[in-house]
Amino acid sequence: MLPALFMGAFCTYFLIKSGEVLLAREKTQIRSEISFIDETISIIGQENYPPDTIAKVEVLKKRLSNVGQNLEIEYLKTMEKWAETKMAIVFLVCVILVFAGLLSVLYSHRIAGPLLRMRRCIDMLAEGKDIPPFHFRSYDEFKEVGASFDRLRQTLKDKGLLKPSK
Question: Are 23 and 82 a contacting pair, CB within 8 Å?
Answer without folding.
Answer: yes
